[in-house]
Amino acid sequence: MDLMREATTGEAEARSVPLETLDPSDGGLWQRNVLHDYLRRLREEDPVHWSPTGPSGGFWSLTKFDDIVAVDSNHGLFSSDRDITVGDQPDEGVVIRNFIASDPPVHDVQRKSVTPAVAPTRLHELETLMRQRTGAVLDSLPLNEPFDWVDKVSIELTTQFLATLFDFPWEDRRLLPYWSDLTTSTEETGNTTVSREARDAVLLECLEYFSRLWRERAAQPQKFDFLSLMAHNPQTRDLINNPMEFLGNILLLVVGGNDTTRNSMTGGVLFMNQFPGEWEKLKANPALTANIAPEIIRFQSPVAHMRRTALADTEIRGRKIKKGEKVVMWYVSGNRDEEVIDRPDEFLIDRERPRHHVAFGFGIHRCMGNRAAELQVRVLWEEILKRFARIEVIGEPVRISSNFILGYSKMMVRLTPA
Q: Of the candidates 308, 334, 335, 333, which has an alpha carbon nearest to the alpha carbon of residue 323?
């Protein structure tokens, strides 16, 4: 990979666009691997940037770390209600709602009901099982011949863990990433591209499937899977009576448990190839696996942004934000902010403060599964070290077209055994 050539080409392209027309919400920027160049230009020249013609109208882009933290931490001034991404949901068909796109008290009640499934004590109980499954998947991989890491490892491991969190039927577990991909895709962008009608039909099938599981869990003693916790919580047990809100919260948990970890598992292998000195550093000092997960997640930033709506007129860096205007926090840019993070464009597994990033958000909406994601990535690399001398990335990975989920649909690799 000629990384210097790619960076130079991307920078030239980003600087050739008139600043007033620069729109970071173009999903093709990630797909073409030039998104970081566009965001770097905004950080340097216009960190509070107005785009008049986004997917759902005009919006402000915040690209500096401190501005992102300030807005994300102030839910009283910047509302999460309804809108998560730059694009709006359709006003017809299947229109879902969930707690990450809600303000208190709805957000707090619904989030609290499922948090025990990923609490530290629960994760500790699940780690041994996770390690066994990770080892089994790695042991099943072909050696010294090409295969797709995304499908064989990233999707499979993430799906296994997600199925455990839902206590989902094991034989149907691949439905989970399928539904996740549909949720974050449109007719033009995402891991899969389908018509609105086809998407709605599948999501209604998803609703029927989870409704059946919910009724089963409600009739059984409470356990610690997501469905059982919601079905037995006095404040959420009636959620089943609001089908679109029920479906929205289920899909939020599916997407949250799938995309962040899955794309970080792929990104980590890619970064070790782009920065081979870090792989040698890890082999020489396996204790660095304690640091590796948050650095991979920072460098990947699998969720590119979240959006808020200003509830009153305000000001950021001298730019006047009007009540009702949309404000997009580009987490992927904040994680490369040179004023806050030392050597941000380098992948460094021995970084002193590896968790000093905004990939999980801040404030009341900070990702509740952040420790679960870190645990899965850490265990993966601990098990990789036991088995392989090298994971060689063959060619360029295939990036999806998206402004929201920064992911990969395919990455060919070749394993050399230890």
A: 308
The rounded distance, in Å, linking the Cα atoms of 410 and 413 is 10
For residues 280 and 341, is the Cβ–Cβ distance under 8 A?
no
At 160, which CATH number?
1.10.630.10
> In which domain, by residue range, is 136 found?
3-417
Please tell me the total count of domains within the chain: 1
Phi, psi for residue 408 in degrees, rounded to 5: -130, 140
Burial class (CB in 10 A: 0-12, 13-18, 19+), 367: middle
pLDDT confidence of 395, banded at 50, 70, 90? very high
Helix (H) or strand (E) holding 107: helix 106-114
Mean pLDDT computed over 374-380: 96
Tokens of 86: 């730059």
Instruction: Decide the pairing of beta strands 326-330 and 57-62.
Output: parallel
pLDDT digits (tens, 9 = 90+) for 203-216: 899 999 999 999 99
Model pTM?
A: 0.91
Distance CA 151, CA 169 (A): 20
**Do residues 303 and 334 lie in contact, with contact meaning Cβ atoms separated by under 8 Å?**
no
**pLDDT tens column, 154-198:** 999 999 999 999 999 999 999 999 998 888 776 666 566 677 788
